Amino acid sequence: MTAPSETPPPAEAAAAPQKKEKKERKPQTGPPEGYEKKKQLTKAERRELQEKQRAAKAAAKGDAPEAKKGGDAKKAPGAAAPKGGGGKEPPAKDTPKPAAPKHTGVLAHLEATSKKKPPSNAHAAVEALGLRYAAGLHDGANERCVAMLAAFKEFVGDYQLAPNTTVNRDLDKKLKPQIQHLIDRRPLSASMGAAVRKLRRCIATLDPEMSAEDAKAALRDEIDAYARERIVLANEVIAKLASEKLRDGDVVVTFGRADAVESALYAAKAAGTTLRVVVVDAAPALEGRVLLRRLSAAGLDCAYCLLHAAPLHLKHATKVVLGADALFSNGAVLAAAGTAGVAMLASAQNVPVLACCEAYKFHDRVQLDSVASNELVDLDPKGKAPADGDKPRARARHLKYDVTPATFVSAIVSEHGLLPPSACAVLIREMGESEGKENPV
């Protein structure tokens, strides 16, 4: 009988070395040999790597992603040059020139209003007037309004009634592009807006059964009556009322040139009042020089100074008489830039300030500053635009108007009498109720 063998079974013998290996394995505390830590890529580097990978895949497939879209395929780095190209890359397309930077300052809305393209269906008289507006030939509020009414009178005279329509509908429809043409050339003043509203009301009230010739004659008469009553006669009444407030020996300070102020000084001279007039002026318009020449030719004792010297003359002034391009319902006066400074200086010296303004310039809008609605004047209108490649030159711009708060105005002189600035809202409401309100365009 043989003794049992001490050799372990095959299963146990196979498991034994594995147990031994587990006992001898040590935990790995560091990276394996030959391992290199990847460098942290930036966003730009990752994007560049992805582009290279896409280009390599496209080159391997022989079909670039741009070709699928129908565009020109970009040459991948390392790819073979196209046949017949001599190893040269195809010429790059002309890249478009970058657009001019847009004006984003506080006056951007004023810059945008002067770049509109006027329509081409304007009447010849309106087209010529728009060019004169853009050139600055008509500057005063009354002068601009009279010129506009004259152009509209020619337009009405040449009007032809369209078939199967009425005069009031067809004429108003054809008048809108004429108004818009003037607006695109230069924004309408308050006086022009009032005249446009009056003309459109007259067109709307025409009898539909009226013939075209009768309607045209009636409208031309209305235009003449409006210019005579609202501008000419109103100016005479204001001149008389303002001259009555001037006394012998007064030193009157005015700014720029205004039709109503000039008429008031002529009326005071005709009444025998001895005055001394100080004309304050400011760049770039320097309209006070025209007034100075006219007053001197009429025999008035005059002096002239620029705006920075106004405080010296206001110390000896007894009254300040100013013009106005518009009068708002809060009593603020819109006038040529520099008027507000003269009014504030006069208020500091306790000198009464009279603002002469025709009633048709009254506006029911409220404006608190000169930035919300204004016009930009180029100080170098004859300057040439820079050529391609030249550095853009700085363009000097100037605000056309400024707003004088009601606290610096003693009284408003209109054809309705002398009014405190606080009473303007009442007069505007009464005028609006009697005439109705309608937007110019």
UniProtKB/TrEMBL annotation:
Keyword Coiled coil: yes
Keyword RNA-binding in record: no
GO MF annotation list: translation initiation factor activity
Subcellular location: Cytoplasm, Cytosol
Keyword vocabulary terms for this entry: Coiled coil, Cytoplasm, Initiation factor, Protein biosynthesis
Classification via InterPro entries: IF-2B-related (IPR000649), IF_2B-like_C (IPR042529), NagB/RpiA_transferase-like (IPR037171)
Coiled coil: 209-236
Pfam families the record matches: IF-2B
UniProt feature, compositional bias: Pro residues: 1-11
SUPFAM superfamilies, per database record: NagB/RpiA/CoA transferase-like (SSF100950)
Domain of life: Eukaryota
Ranges of compositional bias, category Basic and acidic residues: 18-27, 34-54, 63-75
Disordered: region residues: 1-102
Family: Belongs to the eIF-2B alpha/beta/delta subunits family.
Summary of subunit composition and partner proteins: Component of the translation initiation factor 2B (eIF2B) complex which is a heterodecamer of two sets of five different subunits: alpha, beta, gamma, delta and epsilon. Subunits alpha, beta and delta comprise a regulatory subcomplex and subunits epsilon and gamma comprise a catalytic subcomplex. Within the complex, the hexameric regulatory complex resides at the center, with the two heterodimeric catalytic subcomplexes bound on opposite sides.
Protein's UniProt name: Translation initiation factor eIF2B subunit delta
Protein source organism: Aureococcus anophagefferens (Harmful bloom alga)
Recorded name of the encoding gene: EIF2B4
